[in-house]
Amino acid sequence: MYRVRRAAQPYALLFVLLLVVYHSNLRPIAAGDSLPASLIPFSILLDGSITLDRFGPYLTEHVWYGPEVLHKVGGHWYSWYPVAGPVLATPLYLPIALVPQLAKQPPATLIAIARIGEKFTSVTLAAAAAVALLFLLSRLTSRRAAWILTLVFALGTGNWSTASQALWQPTFGDLALIGFLYSMERLDGGTLSPRWYWAAGSFAGIALAIRPTCGILVPVLAVVLWFRSARVSEYLAALVPCLVIASATAAYNLTVFGRLAGGYSAKVERHFVDGLLGILISPGRGLLIYTPVAIFALAAFAPAARQSRGQHRSVVAAATAFSVLHLGLIAVWPEWWGGYCWGPRLLTETLAPILVLIAIGLPVIRSRGWQSAFACLAIYGCLVQALGVYCYPKGRWDALPESVDAAPARVWDWADNPLVRTARGGFVWEPYAIAGAAISGGRPAAAKRLQQLGINPY
Predict the structure, then answer these.
(1) Max alpha carbon distance in the chain (Å)?
(2) 2 has pLDDT over 80
(3) Which end of the chain is more exposed for a tag (fewer CB within 10 A), N or C?
């Protein structure tokens, strides 16, 4: 028992430190899209339902984006977005549910509380994803390298600026995706127990239920099984749980929305090249601009990494296939720029697979020159994420002079881009002022300060 506790201490320390760092900006960086996800746990705990009937009338009457994030059918209000993530995260809301008289509070108060709960939940999930990735990377490379890459993931990617700031779908889905990759690695490690095939299929199904675009994990899983020359029993162990979860998700979508895609449109754009270049190298949304260490994922395919690839072929195949397919899917997505957000929000799920590929390619990055380049890009990435965490949306690049949703070509403006505009906008100090008012004068003083600053908690 002592040895187990001692081995767990570094992971627990990492988790706690990330909780502190992720909470340090004292605010969620949320949007209308994430509001239903923050309310569903309240509906489950207070009303025993995933419907949002308690909140629907208020949101549609008082919050301008209410009709855009809620769907009414059969007299009930539902989230336009998948509900699997919020349902699975509901236990994290139990401490809030213990607040006396919570169920008697008006919708406006509950919504404000939900935004606070959203921050705590997203921070917990993002920190847990980093710890889970550390477990995985420790099987792929040395302990020291695994810790370095985990810190890059935790502080130098969208896991900090996006996943830890609001209940976006990747905030829920990253854990399922990392669980899928970990299951693949256990198969590479000679663990031929059927439970790891079952785990891989279950994680793939959960990821699909959380976010439909993760449905690409199903063909990824099938391809990996084919490369492994899996037996029929192994195919069944992997695909049956995946298909069961997918069927339940499809049944919910058909019941509530009348279509398999749920609240999403199945429409895609034909401008693949424009979308791909935009999500990779544009100053507004480019992955290689906001997380430039991602380029080192290509090292996994260099000749010097052949032995590492051979030892971990299943997880390499899965990480590669998912990353490529996900990039292609987002490139043809109608709103590939992700709306109002910091950096390539829609690529958040690709970050863990990219770090896996970097771990595989570490034998290539042995020279001092390559290591220095990696360190410089990693530090730059951390600074970029910190800019988003502590300064965004100051400068209001997304909205001015014209909404990026109306003019997505703005992501290519090198002279006026989110990095420069946000840095000039300065530090977001308002949450600290509100916290100070709460400490000195309690909730009434905080509410007054919130009103003085003109901040809408919804």
Answers:
(1) 66
(2) no
(3) N
How far is CA 53 from each of CA 39, 47, 59, 79, rounded to the nearest angstrom? Answer: 11, 9, 10, 10
Report which of residues 239 and 1 the model is more confident about: 239
Read off the tokens for 160. 């900090």
Average the pLDDT over 256-274 and give the result: 84
| Structure token pair of residue 298 | 């290509």
d(Cα 317, Cα 309) in Å, to the nearest integer? 9
Q: Which of 163, 156, 159 is nearest to 121 (CA)?
A: 163
CA 248 to chain centre: 23
Q: What percent of the chain has pLDDT over 90?
A: 82
Q: Tell me the backbone φ, ψ of residue 308, rounded to 5 degrees.
A: -65, -40
> For residue 94, what are the contacts with CB-CB under 8 A and spacing of at least 6?
45
What is the 8-class DSSP label of residue 333?
S
List the beta bridge partners of residue 76.
Answer: 73
| pLDDT per residue as tens digits for the range 84-137 | 999 999 999 999 888 888 989 999 999 989 999 999 999 999 999 999 999 999
DSSP per-residue letters across 195-247: HHHHHHHHHHHHHHHH-GGGGGHHHHHHHHHHHTT--HHHHHHHHHHHHHHHH
Q: HSE (CB half, 13 Å, CA atoms) of 13?
A: 8
Angle at 330 between CA 129 and CA 167, to 5 degrees: 40
**DSSP structure class, residue 414:** S
The two three-digit tokens of residue 389, written as one number: 């965490």
Q: DSSP class of residue 73? A: E
CA distances in angstroms from 389 to 13, 235, 354, 422, listed in the order given: 22, 43, 22, 11
Confidence of residue 457 (pLDDT cuts 50, 70, 90): low
What are the angstrom distances between the C-alpha of 431 and each of 25, 114, 332? 7, 17, 37
